[in-house]
Backbone:
């Protein structure tokens, strides 16, 4: 993979990372999960919001793994 392709991939991954963080913040209603971790998502009472937060947390983990592999 060329340098330009790598940079473009990293930019797209950064956008996906930001979107996932924002979606988790909306689902949780706060940013505390970032310091507490995954356990904070399980405390969400609304099942739909908890499912959404868990989905985006999984997406966030995949994006970060890809970023680590590419960088």
Residues:
């Amino acid at each position: 993979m060329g340098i330009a392709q790598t940079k473009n991939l990293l930019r797209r991954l950064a956008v996906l990372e930001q979107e996932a963080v924002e979606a988790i913040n909306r689902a949780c209603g706060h940013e505390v999960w970032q310091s507490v971790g995954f356990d904070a998502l399980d405390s969400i009472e609304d099942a739909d919001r908890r499912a959404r937060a868990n989905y985006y947390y999984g997406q966030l983990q995949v994006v970060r793994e890809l970023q680590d592999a590419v960088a």
